[in-house]
Every structure is written in structure tokens, then in C-alpha cells.
Amino acid sequence: MEVGSDPEEWNFVESLGSGTFGRACLWVKRDSTHTIIDRAVIKETYLDRIDWADDWNWGDNQVPWEAYVHERLSGLDRGRRSIVRFRNYRVYAELAMFRLYMEFGSGGTLNDLIERHANLNDANMKAADGRRLEYHIPARFIWSAFEAMARAACLMKNGSVINASPAKWERLVHRDIKPANIFIMHAPRPPVDSWWPSLPLVKLGDFGMTVREDNEGYENPSAFINRGTELYCAPEQSSRHLKRENEYKHKLTPAADVFAIGKVVLCMMQLLNDTEKRRPQAPRDYEPYDFPEELERRYGRDLVVLVKGCMRPNPEKRISPEKLLYDIQEYVNDMERDDEGTPTPLKFQLPSPEEYVSEKKDLYELLSR
């Protein structure tokens, strides 16, 4: 994709966020009648000259490492349900900068969705009969997001969701799975399949901190840790422990991503995110997490047990990405009765009248119908 090509033009709309190395912006493509016909996120990353020359930041054939990883994972996500779709990249060597072109998360981020539900809960609204209205994220949405993230974890570890790795696949660790890096896409119309009817898609993005697993080298864990967002990091991803013997206790492996996925699901259940007001707990020294009893009453024992399996402090005792995906699919594909008494797996059930997901409205999608 090129910006400014005639007769169709790409135009800047807004900045979506910025970080240490650059920013991401929304661009739209208009035809000769000024009608929007396409949208994309362009992420610009600037490096200093030392980092630009470092092989660590480059994949095969001098492709920027983030582009190399993202493009491979996007290509392997054949159902386009777990990884933000990669479109293209471009290198500007004279500026020590590269651009990534990718799918736009029209529904914002999971961080935004948690915040909307939490704000609604904080408002203490009441029904006509005086009963307090609660706006917890529905279980059906949480299960769908959990499944999508488990698929992404399998892709990063094995290059496949069926445990059949492509040739020469090297295991990857994302290192920064958190609600702000999980994007919500409005479901295509008409739907491409019958999975999770009426729910938006949830996809993992931002692979700038992804590394190859290095079980044999001397740099793991010392060079791999203390990166990412500490609120969601596995204990082995940090050296900031109170007890010195815990500083480099375990190597960094895909188990760290499983922990982060569990933490994200726990935050959805508790309406916590990385805003100042709603920060989740982050114990040190491999201390276990607390799981309030109300979570099991609200979401069921099966979901809580799986989240606990993801968040075991010892990475060697955590559930694997493959087993996690298998157990999720066993549950969501199991027959249970829907509101009309018909045996229907959760994954194919229509939303109940009480279900409410606070989606960000997509004006572009509404106007294009």
C-alpha cells in the first residue's frame, strides 16, 4: 500500500498512540468521490543508529524483526481470528525508521472495553424495580477472547494451532501480552462462519518485544527479562524480586505468555486494567494470586480453574498453550441447553437477552451498510 497514489489517496485521520520508539496512526483511503474505501494502521518505529545496526532488530533478508514476526504469524492465522492482520512494511534507512501497515482495530482495545464496563458499574445505575444494574463482561465474550488468545499462544510457540510446526519454526515469546495490545475487530458482515455469533473478534497485536526462545544460550533469562508491562508479566520475566534467589530462577519460555493470557482474563473478570484507578495486583517472589469466590459464582468453576492453571507461579507447572486451547475448546464445544432449551454448544449460542458487551461503535461500518 502506498500513501498519496492517484486517483485514490491515503489520508491521515488520527494518532492512536505513541511509545518509546514511535507512534501508530489511523489512515483512510478515499476514491475519486472522497468515499472511504479502506482503512489501515501505520506504525512508525524509529531506532538510534546503534540499534539500527544491531542484528537483534532484523529478521531474514534484512526485514525488520517486528515485521518479520508479525507477517509470519499473520500468515499462519488462517481463520484470521487471533492475530492482527499484517499488510506490508517499508524501510527508510536514511531515517533509521520503518513502517508497518496493518489491520485497524475498529473496536479499540480490550483495555478500552474493560474501562467502559467498569465505568458503567461505577455509575450505580438501577432498573425500574430499584435493582442495581451490573455491567460485568459476559462469560460468552470472555470465553471467546480466551480461545483467541490461546490460539495465538499456540501459533507463537509452534507455528500452528494443531501442534504441527512448520519447518525450522523457532519458538517465540511475545513478552507484552496485555489488554492494551489486544485489539477488538467488529465482526464482518455477513459473518464468515457461525462461531461466537454477534460477538466482535479479539486479536493479538504489537510484536515489537517478541523474542525467540533461547533455552541453550547464556542470554536467557538475563537479556530477555525486565521488558514488557510489569502488571501482566510472569514472575520469571522480572528480576525485581525481594528475595535474591528468585532473580534469575527460570528461563523465559512461552509459558510466560500463558501467564499473561491468564492475567488478562482475570482482569476481564474483575474489570481491572492498567489505568491508575484499576491496576491489578502484581505479587513478587513467585507468590500465588488471590481468586475471590465471587468469580466462580459469576463465571463458573471451569473458567476459574483454567485461569488458575495459566497463572501458576512456577512456569514448569503452568498449563501449556496446547492443553489450554484443547480444554477451552472442549468446554465451548460441549453441548448445553440454550435459552430455548435446545442443546447448543456455547460457541454457537446466540446472545441471551441479558448479555451486554460495551462495544465501541464503528461509524465507518454503520455508514457503509
From TrEMBL:
Catalyses which reaction(s): L-seryl-[protein] + ATP = O-phospho-L-seryl-[protein] + ADP + H(+); L-threonyl-[protein] + ATP = O-phospho-L-threonyl-[protein] + ADP + H(+)
Record-listed E.C. numbers: 2.7.11.1
CDD domains: PKc
GO molecular function, one term: protein serine/threonine kinase activity
Lineage of the species this protein comes from: Eukaryota, Fungi, Dikarya, Ascomycota, Pezizomycotina
InterPro entries reported for this sequence: Kinase-like_dom_sf, NEK_Ser/Thr_kinase, Prot_kinase_dom, Ser/Thr_kinase_AS
Domain (Protein kinase) ranges: 10-332
Annotated protein name in UniProt: non-specific serine/threonine protein kinase
Enzyme kind, highest EC tier: transferase
Keywords from the named record: ATP-binding, Kinase, Nucleotide-binding, Serine/threonine-protein kinase, Transferase
SUPFAM superfamilies registered for this protein in UniProt: Protein kinase-like (PK-like)
Keyword check for Cell membrane: no
GO cellular component term of the entry, any: nucleus
